[in-house]
Amino acid sequence: MKVAVLDINGKETGRSIELSDAVFAVEPHNHSVYLDVKQYLANQRQGTHKAKERAEITGSTRKIKKQKGTGTARAGSIKSGLFRGGGRMFGPRPRNYGFKLNKNVKRLARRSALSMKAKTNDIIVLEDIDFASPKTKEFKNLLSSLGLADKKSLFVLGESNNNVYLSSRNLKRSKVVTSSEISTYAVMNANSIVLFEGTVEGVVSNLSK
Fold first, then answer.
1. How is the beta sheet containing 174-178 ordered, strand by strand?
2. 82 and 103 part of one domain
3. What gap in Å lies between CA 22 and CA 108, rounded to an integer?
4. Is pLDDT of 160 > 90?
C-alpha cells in the first residue's frame, strides 16, 4: 500500500512510500497480539509483594491453652493466622510474573498490530526531521500540524535521536521509540503511528525475519 509522505507542517510533500504488504497488510492474528501484550504488561509488574507467614511473626511459642476440655478448637500457637496479629496464611511472596514468548510469535503480533493500524488509516509517514535542541514547544507544534494534539501517538525513529526524545518526554500522550524498540502494546495503545520516512525500511527489515 502507498502512503503519502508529509512534511513538518502536516502537508503532503508530493512523495509517497510503499509500505510492505508482508508487514502492513497481513491477516491479523489476535491471539498473538493478546500474548505479546500480556507479556509486556506482566514484565511491568515488580513482583516485590510480601506478607509475613506464621514462621516469620515475632511472638511466643507457648501453647496458649490446654489441648482438651475448653469446648473450643485446639490451638498451639498465638502466631497462627486464625488469631489477630498472627501470620497470613498463603500470603503473597516475591515472584517474577514474566513468561517466555517465541520470537516468531512476537514478530507476528507486531505485524498484526501494524496491519490493524494500516487498515484503519492510522499510520502517518513523516519526512525525516531533526530538532536543533530539545524543545517541547516545537514537538507540540508538530503534533498540532498532524492533528494529534489530543490523541495518543507513537513516533518511530530509525535510530536514537536525543533531541526528539527529550522534546516529547513531558507529553503524556506521545511516545518516541526506535524501530528496534517498537512493541505490540505501544502500537495498540496509540491512536496513530508516525513513521519517519527513513524508518520504514528498518521496521520492515526487523519484522520480516
1. 12-18, 2-6, 123-126, 192-196, 153-157, 174-178
2. no
3. 10
4. no
- Specify whether 9 is located in the same domain as 26: yes
- Judgement on whether residues 23 and 124 belong to the same structural domain of the protein: yes
Q: Rounded to 5 degrees, what are φ and ψ at 145? A: -65, -35
Q: Give start and end residues of each alpha helix (H) in 4-102.
A: 21-24, 30-43
Q: In this structure, what are the phi and psi dihedrals at residue 21, rounded to the nearest 5 degrees?
A: -65, -25
Model pTM?
0.83
Residue 128, pLDDT > 90, answer no
The last residue of a domain, from among 91, 118, 148: 91
Give yes or no: residues 81 and 6 share one domain: no
- Three cell numbers written together for 190: 496509540
Mean pLDDT of 60-88: 92
Which of 79, 24, 88 has its CA nearest to residue 52? Answer: 88
Residues 19 and 2 sit within 8 Å (Cβ to Cβ): yes
Chain mean pLDDT for the chain:
92
Is the CB of residue 167 less than 8 Å from the CB of residue 97?
Answer: no
Q: Where is the domain boundary, 91, 122, 145?
A: 91
Q: Which domain holds residue 38?
A: 2-46+99-207
When divided into structural domains, the chain yields a total of 2
